[in-house]
C-alpha cells in the first residue's frame, strides 16, 4: 500500500475524493489488484475499511440467502465463490467447491475449452446435466439470447460424453453464464447461475409415459371396436335379409302376430346396423384412417336427396318439412356420402324429437366466405344443464329410466367430427320446449370448383 500511495502527490492525496461503496465483486478483486491506475485507485473506493467490510458482508449474506445456485469462476474455470444453494445442488460442502475447477462438474475439459471463449465473448445459456461425482453430460444447448446476442452453437464433439456410471447422480439444470464487467478494469470472472430441472424433467417423463399409454389404449380400443363391428356385420346382414323376405311375405302370408314380430326383428336389425356403422366411422376418424373423397357438389341436390330419405319417417309422424334452398348456392368441396350422412343425422334427430304433427326445416345460405346449412325443429329442446354433453359419444340426453327415443348416442358426435374433417364447424341453439337449431358451417368452394359443378350439371 505504501508503494501505491507514493505514486500520488501531496495535493492529490489532500484533494477531496468521491466516496464510492464497492460492490461485492470489487471487494474480491481489490486486494490482489496492485497495478491499477491512479484514477482507478481514486474511484474504486474510499478505502474506508468499515465500509468495505460492511459491503462485503451484506452482499455475501444476500447471495447466501438466494435460493438459486450461483458460482463465480475465473477464465480458467476455477471456482472463486459458491453460495449455499450451489453446495446443496451438488451435495458437496462449500469448502470443497472453492478452489476446485468447474470442469469437474461439466462433460469434459474439451467442452470447457469450447465453452469458455464463447462465454467470455457473449455469454451462454443452455441446459447442462451436472454430476456430484465429477462427471456430467451435456443435455443440449438453448437458443436463448444473452444481452441480445445469439448463444453460440457448440461443435457436435462437445456434446458427446460417456454414459454415467452406476453410482453417479446427475442433475439436469438450466445454466446462464455471463462475464463480469467492472467499472475500470476487466475482472476476468464469470458468473454461473443454475436452475434445478430435476422435478420438471420427472414431470415431463411422467407425462410422456402417460401420453404413450393413452395413445396405446386409444389404439387398442379403436382396433377392438373395428374388429368387433366387422364380426357383427356379417351375421347381421343375414338377419336383415331373411327378416326382409319374411316381412314382404314372399313365401306366404303371416299371421298378425308373426308380422309384428318380423317387423320388430327388422327394425332392431336396422338399429344395430346403424350403431355398428357409426362405431366404425368414429373409430376410423379417431385413428386418422377416414379419407374424404372431396369433389365440387351441388348443395341443393344433396339436401333434397337427404330429405327424400327421411320423408317416410316424417310422414309417419305427420311432420311438415320446410326447405329454403336458393338456386344460386355455390358449389361446396365436400365428400358427398359424408355430407349426406351429416344431414341424415340431423334430420333424423329433428324427426325423432319433434311432437307428432309438428314442423321441421332445412335451410342453406351464404354468409361472407362460408356456407351455412341449418336443420331446425320445434320439438322438446335441450335443457341448458345438458347442452355440454351434446357432442360426446354414447350420450343420451333423456333419462335412462324414462327414455322414449331410440338412438346410439353417436349421431351428433360423428357429425361434429365429420364437419371438422371438412374444415368446418357445427353450432347449435336450443331452448327447452321450443326446439333446436343445428348449423353446419363450411368454407366456400373456390371459383374453379364452382365452374366444375357447372360443367358437371351440363
What would your notes on this structure say?
With 458 residues, the protein is of the alpha+beta class. The protein has 14 helices and 15 strands. It has helices at residues 2-5, 10-14, 24-29, 38-44, 49-65, 84-90, 94-97, 109-121, 198-247, 256-286, 299-316, 336-352, 411-421, 447-457, and strands spanning 70-74, 79-82, 124-131, 137-141, 145-146, 149-150, 170-181, 186-196, 294-297, 320-324, 332-335, 359-367, 370-377, 425-431, 435-443. It has a 6-stranded antiparallel beta sheet. A 5-stranded mixed beta sheet has the order 10-12-13-15-14. Helix 9 packs antiparallel against helix 10 (256-286) and helix 10 (256-286) runs parallel beside helix 13. The longest helix is centred in the middle third of the chain and has 50 residues, at 198-247. It is elongated, with a radius of gyration of 39 Å. The chain starts with a helix and ends with a helix.
List keywords for this structure.
458 residues, alpha+beta, six-stranded antiparallel beta sheet, five-stranded mixed beta sheet, 14 helices, 15 strands, 44% helix, 21% strand, elongated, disordered N terminus
What structural category characterises the helix and strand content? alpha+beta
Shape: elongated
Note the run of SSEs as H and E. Answer: HHHHHEEHHHEEEEEEHHEHEEHEEHEEH
Major pleated sheet:
6 strands, antiparallel
- Identify the strand order in the major beta sheet: 2-1-8-7-3-4
Compute the CA-based radius of gyration: 39 Å
Counted beta strands:
15
Helix content: 40-55%
Query: Mean of the pLDDT scores?
Result: 75
Instruction: Note the gap between the termini.
Output: 105 Å
Q: Work out the strand percent.
A: 15-25%
Low-confidence blocks of residues? 1-48, 134-166, 399-403, 446-454
Number of helices: 14
Amino acid at each position: 500500500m505504501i508503494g501505491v500511495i507514493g505514486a500520488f502527490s501531496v495535493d492529490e492525496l489532500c484533494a477531496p475524493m468521491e466516496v464510492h461503496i464497492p460492490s461485492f465483486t470489487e471487494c474480491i478483486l481489490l486486494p490482489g489488484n496492485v497495478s491499477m491506475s491512479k484514477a482507478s485507485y481514486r474511484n474504486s473506493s474510499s478505502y474506508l475499511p468499515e465500509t468495505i467490510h460492511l459491503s462485503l458482508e451484506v452482499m455475501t449474506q444476500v447471495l447466501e440467502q438466494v435460493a438459486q445456485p450461483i458460482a463465480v469462476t475465473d477464465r480458467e474455470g476455477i471456482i472463486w465463490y459458491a453460495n449455499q444453494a450451489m453446495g446443496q445442488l451438488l451435495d458437496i460442502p462449500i469448502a470443497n467447491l472453492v478452489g476446485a475447477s468447474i470442469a469437474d462438474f461439466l462433460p469434459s475439459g474439451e467442452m470447457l475449452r469450447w465453452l469458455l471463449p464463447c462465454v467470455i465473448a457473449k455469454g451462454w445459456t443452455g441446459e447442462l446435466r451436472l454430476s456430484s461425482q465429477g462427471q456430467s453430460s451435456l443435455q443440449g444447448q438453448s437458443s436463448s439470447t444473452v444481452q441480445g446476442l445469439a448463444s453460440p452453437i457448440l461443435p457436435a464433439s462437445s456434446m458427446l460424453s460417456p454414459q454415467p456410471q452406476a453410482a453417479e447422480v446427475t442433475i439436469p439444470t438450466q445454466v446462464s453464464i455471463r462475464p463480469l464487467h467492472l467499472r475500470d478494469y476487466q475482472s476476468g470472472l464469470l458468473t454461473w447461475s443454475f436452475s434445478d430441472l430435476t422435478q420438471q424433467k420427472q414431470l415431463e417423463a411422467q407425462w410422456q409415459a402417460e401420453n404413450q399409454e393413452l395413445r396405446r389404449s386409444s389404439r387398442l380400443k379403436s382396433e377392438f371396436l373395428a374388429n368387433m363391428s366387422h364380426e357383427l356385420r356379417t351375421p347381421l346382414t343375414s338377419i336383415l335379409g331373411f327378416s326382409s323376405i319374411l316381412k314382404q311375405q314372399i313365401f306366404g302370408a303371416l299371421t298378425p302376430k308373426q308380422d309384428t314380430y318380423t317387423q320388430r326383428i327388422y327394425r332392431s336389425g336396422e338399429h344395430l346396423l346403424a350403431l355398428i356403422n357409426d362405431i366404425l366411422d368414429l373409430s376410423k376418424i379417431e385413428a386418422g384412417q377416414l379419407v374424404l373423397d372431396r369433389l365440387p357438389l351441388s348443395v341443393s341436390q344433396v339436401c333434397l336427396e337427404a330429405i327424400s330419405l327421411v320423408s317416410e319417417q316424417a310422414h309417419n309422424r305427420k311432420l311438415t318439412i320446410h326447405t329454403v334452398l336458393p338456386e344460386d348456392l355455390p358449389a361446396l368441396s365436400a365428400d358427398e356420402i359424408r355430407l349426406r350422412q351429416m344431414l341424415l343425422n340431423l334430420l333424423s334427430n329433428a324427426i325423432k324429437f319433434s311432437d307428432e304433427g309438428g314442423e321441421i326445416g332445412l335451410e342453406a345460405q351464404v354468409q361472407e366466405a362460408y356456407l351455412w346449412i341449418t336443420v331446425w325443429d320445434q320439438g322438446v329442446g335441450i335443457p341448458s344443464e345438458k347442452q355440454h354433453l351434446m357432442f360426446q359419444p354414447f350420450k343420451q340426453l333423456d333419462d335412462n329410466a324414462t327414455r322414449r327415443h331410440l338412438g346410439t348416442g353417436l349421431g351428433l358426435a360423428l357429425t361434429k367430427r365429420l364437419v371438422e374433417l371438412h374444415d368446418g364447424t357445427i353450432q347449435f341453439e336450443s331452448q327447452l320446449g321450443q326446439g333446436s337449431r343445428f348449423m353446419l358451417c363450411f368454407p366456400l368452394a373456390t371459383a374453379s370448383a364452382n365452374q366444375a359443378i357447372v360443367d358437371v350439371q351440363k
